[in-house]
C-alpha cells in the first residue's frame, strides 16, 4: 500500500495517458479539457484539435442536440455509471465515420470545478463477433433440422427398394435386383452421412461439460466393447492407465471410440494385431494421447486429408465395412473444442499412430 | 399373436406403410389402428360420451405430429387414470437428447429411433411388438383401480 501511495501524480497521469481505453475529460461547460493517446488514435484527432472544443465534436451529428441535454442532466447529478444504459452508443471520428462504442462516465471534483471523465471503447469487433456467432448458430440448427428431416424420405427410398427386392425380385431379374441392392446400400451410407451432420451440428452447439476423466479407463472399456462385438479376433491391447484429463466425458468417448474402432478395423488383416493407447510429451497442451496400431497404415502424403469429413483413404473393396469417412472429422472437431489438436503418422503397411491433445495454451 | 389392438400414431404415409409391412413380415397380425395426428389420438382415447373404448395394448407414438405433438399426447395420457398405464413406445427419427429425456420424463415406456435401413427398421418394429404384446405382462384388465 505504502509503495502504491508513494506513486507520484505524474506516474498516475502517465498510466492514464497509456491506458487501453480512450479517455476524454470535459469541464462543466461541456468543453474538452484532457484526452489521452488512445482517444487521439480512436477519434483521429490531434490533442490540440480537441482540447477546448465542445465534446459533441466526438458525437454523431444526428444525436448532438440530445447529447448536450443529457450532458446537462448528468452534471446535475453526477455519479459513476455506464452511459446510455441499454442504448447503442456511437462515436464520430475526425473523418466523419461512426463506430459503435461502450462508454462509462465518472465525475471528479477538482479545484477548477467538476470534471467528467468518459472512458470510451470501440466495440466494432465484439459486435461483429456476436453477429458471426449468431449466424453460425443459425447455420448449425439449419444443418441439424435438414439432416433430421432428410431421414424420413431416405427411409422410404431404402424401404421401398427392399420391398421391391422382397416382393418383386423375380420380375426385376438379376440385374434389376442388383440395382435395387445398390439403392439400399447407398441409402444406408447416406444415413451415416446424415448422422454425421447431426452429430457435427450438435457438437458445435454443445456446451462442454468438463470433468476429470481417466482416458485410460475409458479406452479400456471401449476396447472391451469392441472386442466383445467380434470375440473371434485376437488383438493385443496395451492401455496406459490412469490418464487423467479435464474433458467432456461423452465427447471424449466419441474420440476414443473412433480411434480405437479404426485401429481395430484396419488391423483386421493381421494375426498379430496390436493396439496401444498411451501418452506422449504434451508440449503446450495439458495432455497428449496417442492410439497406435500395426495395421494397414496410410500414405503420409494424404495425412492432411484424413481429418476432413467424407474422406476415405482406403477403397471400400479393401475394407468393406469402413464407415462414411466422418469419424476422424468428429475426432478433430471434439479435440479442437477442447482447445487441442489432432495429427497422425504412418507409412503404408507400417501401422498408424493418431495423436490428440487436450487443453492447449490459453484454454481453461 | 392375440386380439390386442395396436395404435400406430404416424403422420408420414411412407413410414405408416413400412411399419404396417414390418408388422406383417414379423407375423404380428394384431389389429393396427392408425392415427395421423395428436388431436385424433386424444379424441380416440378420451371419448367425450363416457363410452369406454377398449384401451390399445400398445401405442407406437411419433413425436413430430401435426396439431398436437407426441409429447403433449403423452403428457395428457399420463395425467388421466384411464390411459395412465397404456404402454407407449416412442418411435421417431430424432435422437436429440432433449427428446429422449422429455419422452421418459413424460412417461414413455421405451424410446426407439427409426433406423434408415428398412430391414433394421422392420426388425426393431418386430422386437417391440413381440415384447409388448407377448412377453410383457400387461396391466390387469379391470384396470389400476381394482382392489
Can you tell me the overall shape of chain A? elongated
Classification by helices and strands of chain B: alpha/beta
Output mean pLDDT of chain A. 86
State the end-to-end CA separation of chain A.
32 Å
Which range does the strand content of chain A fall in? 15-25%
The CATH H-level homologous superfamily of chain B: Response regulator
Any low-confidence stretches of chain B, pLDDT <50, length ≥5?
none
Span between termini of chain B: 29 Å
Say how many strands of chain B there are: 5
CATH architecture of the largest domain in chain A, please? 2-Layer Sandwich
Quickly give the structural class of chain A: alpha+beta
CATH topology of chain B: Rossmann fold
Roughly how much helix do the residues of chain A carry, as a percent range? Answer: 40-55%
Question: Can you list the strand order of the major beta sheet of chain B?
Answer: 2-1-3-4-5
The CATH C-level name of the largest domain in chain A is Alpha Beta
Q: Describe the global form of chain B.
A: globular
- Helical segment tally of chain A? 10
Outline the biggest β-sheet of chain B: 5 strands, parallel
Mean pLDDT across all residues of chain B, rounded? Answer: 87
| Helix count from the secondary structure assignment of chain B | 5
Unreliable segments of 5+ consecutive residues of chain A: none
Q: Care to give the gist of this entry?
A:
The complex is a heterodimer of chains A (364) and B (147). Chain A has 364 residues and is α+β, with helices and mostly antiparallel strands. Chain A has helices at residues 2-5, 9-18, 37-43, 47-50, 64-76, 124-149, 151-205, 215-229, 249-266, 327-337; strands spanning 22-27, 32-35, 81-82, 89-92, 98-110, 113-122, 210-214, 236-239, 244-248, 274-280, 287-293, 342-346, 352-358.
Amino acid at each position: 500500500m505504502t509503495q502504491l501511495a508513494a506513486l507520484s501524480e505524474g506516474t498516475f497521469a502517465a498510466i492514464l495517458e497509456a491506458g487501453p481505453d480512450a479517455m476524454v475529460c470535459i469541464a462543466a461547460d461541456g468543453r474538452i479539457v484532457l484526452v489521452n493517446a488512445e482517444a487521439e488514435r480512436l477519434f483521429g484527432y490531434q490533442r490540440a484539435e480537441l482540447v477546448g472544443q465542445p465534446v459533441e465534436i466526438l458525437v454523431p451529428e444526428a444525436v448532438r442536440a440530445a447529447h448536450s441535454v443529457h450532458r446537462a442532466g448528468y452534471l446535475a447529478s453526477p455519479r459513476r455509471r455506464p452511459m446510455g444504459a441499454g442504448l447503442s452508443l456511437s462515436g464520430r471520428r475526425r473523418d466523419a465515420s461512426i463506430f459503435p462504442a461502450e462508454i462509462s462516465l465518472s465525475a471528479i471534483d477538482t479545484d477548477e470545478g467538476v470534471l467528467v471523465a468518459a472512458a470510451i471503447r470501440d466495440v466494432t469487433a465484439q459486435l461483429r463477433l456476436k453477429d458471426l456467432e449468431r449466424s453460425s448458430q443459425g447455420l448449425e440448427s439449419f444443418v441439424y433440422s435438414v439432416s433430421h428431416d432428410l431421414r424420413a424420405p431416405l427411409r422410404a427410398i431404402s424401404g421401398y427398394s427392399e420391398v421391391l427386392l422382397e416382393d418383386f425380385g423375380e420380375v426385376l431379374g438379376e440385374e434389376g435386383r442388383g440395382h435395387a441392392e445398390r439403392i439400399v446400400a447407398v441409402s444406408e451410407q447416406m444415413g451415416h452421412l446424415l448422422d454425421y451432420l447431426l452429430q457435427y451440428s450438435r457438437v458445435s452447439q454443445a456446451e462442454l461439460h468438463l470433468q476429470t476423466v481417466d482416458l485410460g479407463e475409458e479406452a479400456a472399456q471401449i476396447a472391451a466393447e469392441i472386442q466383445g462385438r467380434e470375440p473371434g479376433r485376437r488383438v493385443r491391447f496395451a492401455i496406459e492407465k490412469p490418464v487423467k484429463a479435464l474433458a467432456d466425458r461423452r465427447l471424449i468417448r466419441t474420440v476414443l471410440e473412433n480411434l480405437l474402432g479404426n485401429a481395430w478395423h484396419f488391423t483386421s488383416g493381421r494375426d498379430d494385431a496390436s493396439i496401444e493407447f498411451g501418452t506422449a510429451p504434451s508440449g503446450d497442451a495439458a495432455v497428449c494421447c496417442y492410439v497406435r496400431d500395426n495395421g494397414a497404415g496410410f500414405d503420409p502424403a494424404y495425412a492432411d486429408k484424413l481429418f476432413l469429413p467424407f474422406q476415405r483413404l482406403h477403397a471400400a473393396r479393401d475394407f468393406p465395412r469402413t464407415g462414411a469417412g466422418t469419424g476422424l472429422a468428429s475426432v478433430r472437431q471434439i479435440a479442437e473444442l477442447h482447445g487441442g489438436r489432432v495429427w497422425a503418422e504412418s507409412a503404408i503397411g507400417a501401422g498408424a499412430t493418431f495423436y490428440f491433445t487436450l487443453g492447449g495454451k490459453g484454454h481453461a | 399373436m392375440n386380439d390386442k389392438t395396436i395404435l400406430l400414431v404416424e403422420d408420414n404415409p411412407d413410414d405408416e406403410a413400412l411399419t404396417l409391412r414390418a408388422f406383417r413380415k414379423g407375423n404380428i397380425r394384431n389389429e393396427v389402428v392408425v392415427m395421423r395426428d395428436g388431436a385424433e389420438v386424444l379424441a380416440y382415447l378420451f371419448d367425450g360420451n363416457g363410452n369406454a373404448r377398449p384401451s390399445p395394448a400398445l401405442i407406437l407414438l411419433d413425436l413430430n405430429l401435426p396439431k398436437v405433438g407426441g409429447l403433449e399426447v403423452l403428457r395428457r395420457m399420463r395425467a388421466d387414470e384411464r390411459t395412465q398405464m397404456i404402454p407407449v413406445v416412442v418411435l421417431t427419427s430424432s435422437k436429440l437428447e432433449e427428446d429422449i429425456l422429455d419422452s421418459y420424463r413424460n412417461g414413455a415406456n421405451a424410446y426407439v429411433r427409426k433406423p434408415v435401413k428398412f430391414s433394421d427398421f422392420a426388425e426393431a418394429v418386430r422386437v417391440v411388438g413381440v415384447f409388448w404384446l407377448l412377453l410383457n405382462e400387461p396391466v390387469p384388465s379391470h384396470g389400476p383401480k381394482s382392489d
